[in-house]
Specification:
With 371 residues, the chain is an alpha/beta fold. Helix content is 28%, strand content 18%. The protein is globular and about 55 Å long. It is found in: Membrane.
Length: 371
Amino acid sequence: MGSLAISITQILVLFLLLMNEANGDGHNHHEHFNKVGGIIRANTTTEGCDFSQGNWVYDPSYPLYDTSCCPFVEKEFDCIRNGRPDKLYLKLRWQPFACNLPRFNGRDFLRRFRGKSIMFVGDSLSLNQWQSLTCMLHTADPQAQYESARVGGLSIFTFPAYNVKVMFSRNAFLVDIISTSAGRVLQLNSLQSGKLWKNVDLLIFNTWHWWLHTGRKQPWDFIQDGQILHKDMDRLVAYEKALNTWAKWVDTNVDPTKTRVFFQGVSPDHNNATEWGDLSGKSCAGQARALDGLSYQAGPHPAELVVEKVVRSISKPVSLLNVTALSQLRKDGHPSFYGHGGHRDMDCSHWCLAGVPDTWNILLYAAISQS
């Protein structure tokens, strides 16, 4: 009976998609994907299938890798090593309703980027995705030697046999924070670190996680907007202003014939169990099952709406991975107690590896391989 209900729902979804196309929405969607500048939905195929609409299904062939074979994975993401006892979260594969994602082919990925460079730019969620990709690539060709180095805030993972660099630049806000006599200032209109991003072949940006921090976790004392210095301001408004500064950098500095630009999207946390209807729970602690994409609709994330608005304003082509909706279903995917801090530090923001960021990289691979 359950499978019948699912199939009827999927048929209904397909019917609505066809109706949208008949009414002209489908045409606009194709045009939006193929336009020269502005937002490109990286999770949409040229045939109009939306990768972001789907469900998590059990797959006995998962996970895609064993972190014990990737000693470079940060301890805070290696939940099995940290004693997490349940294993179902490792066995879930993202299945779009109307099509199939390509199986990740790490050797093909490396061949496509032979002699090229890839850089993740952002906060620790970018670190999460970068570590996932490096492990996926190492697992695909374990005989290929790798080199790993860190220079300041830049981490460089190299596959010499392919001459491929996969880098991570830690930059939580994308815009600048400077030290002044008055204190640390978050400058919404200044972006000096972009010098590091030039001439990279593939850029994947992300920022959001740090914008809501307060107290000791807040790394600034003032926010500067133009010539005005604020003690604080609406964080979502500040976020949009900073993204607009980044957008101007993309339009000014990116050559689309040489560099492809992605924005990761907003990675959701699961700190409040009432958001998924669990009145007894407080956070992601003890969560061992994903939510059902057919019955649970979290609604749009406010920050994701800002990202879409800003990316849509960019004249150069920028691909949006849009990881938000599929990740909202994975309340089970966080380290919780099994991160770097044990029971002293509950982590419902980052993701266990292997885990959800692997799917983000499959979306990245799908977008690259179909272009």
